[in-house]
Structures are given as C-alpha cells and as structure tokens.
What we know:
Layout: E1 6-13, E2 20-27, E3 32-38, E4 44-51, E5 56-61, E6 67-72, E7 78-84, E8 91-98, E9 105-108, E10 114-119, E11 124-129, E12 141-144, E13 167-168, E14 177-181, E15 188-190, E16 199-206
Parallel strand pairs: 1-16
Antiparallel strand pairs: 1-2, 2-3, 3-4, 5-6, 6-7, 7-8, 9-10, 10-11, 11-12, 13-14, 14-15
Amino acid sequence: MKATIAILLSMVFGTPALAATFVYVSNADDGEIGTYTLQPDGSLKPGQRIKAEKIVMPMAVSPDKRFLIAAVRSKPYQAYSYLIDRGSGELKLVGTGSLAESLPYISLDRSGRFLFGASYGANLVTVNPVGADGRIGEPLQVVPTARNAHSACRGARSARPGHPRATPITTSGPRIFTSLRTAASSTPRSARRARSGRSALTARTES
Length: 207
C-alpha cells in the first residue's frame, strides 16, 4: 500500500473473553479495505483484505455496528455497504449505491437511516437513505454550500421542535451554517466543520 487514506476503529464488546477491537483501513491506490485486529500489546494483526474500487476513501459505521459504509471517489461515485462479522470483524459486501459527487467525508445519523456526505471540490452536502439491509439509496437531497464543504453530520438537537441547530460546514473563509431536512423525514439534519483532513472514528457495540 502506498498510503493510508482512512482508518476506522470498531470496538466490539461482548463477554471479556470475546472482546475485540477491529481496525479498518481504506487504501485509495489499491481500491481495498484491510481488516486488522488490535492486540493487547498494541500491535495490529492483519486479517481480511476486501476489494472495493479505486480511490475508496472515507468510511462510516452504522450505530448498531452491523454495517460499514465506504465511499468511492472515482466515477461512477458509489457507496459500498458491508456487513460486519461481530466475531472476526470480516466484511461481506451487501450492495452498492449511487452518490451525487466525490465525497471526502461521510457520516450516518443516529438512527442509521441517512448517510450524509460533503464534497470539498463540488461545494455541496448530500443526504442518501440507508435501507434496513445497509444498502444506500439514491440521493434524497443535494445542497450547494459555500466554498470547500469539508464535513457533514447530524447537529445538536434543538430544544424547540421545528427549530434545528445548524453547525458549520466549510473550512474556507467565515464559518458558514446550513440546516438540512431530508425529504423522507421531518427530523432536522445539519452539517459541521471537520477537525482534520483525515477520516477516523471509534465505534462501540454490544455483540
């Protein structure tokens, strides 16, 4: 591998004997996602390598920790959905779905029903539905933003219904605030500024 593009840690907690931490690494050059198991001494044990597509980059894990979703930034832009084996951490492809643009950042809402994306180059944020089987549906909404939208995720819940809080979505120039609503739900969705250019997150589950 020439470069590590994104790292995702998925912590799976069951009984103490079965507790494990899996590390997923996407590699744009190879178009693959590698699975590693974190050892007690801090080393990584290599595991499965599964094919996605060239320029696979950002990843997100569903709130119930059943699925990993990876975005491919080469045309045709697609999201790959994988079922996570809770015992081994291995991935199984369940399907792909279309994305509106090349997305360097993706995230899921708390329900796991919507995938948010931000396109730095196209200056927009997007919303896609997520099926019960983890598959990504056609884009529900594409929203133009100020220059260089860097990340998109669910914002803080407003204390007053119908008055969502919006959070920043751009890293260039002034902090810009935009609020989103999905076509399939009245639940407010919003976007925020990323802390860094790398995609990384930690997820905890119960097996």
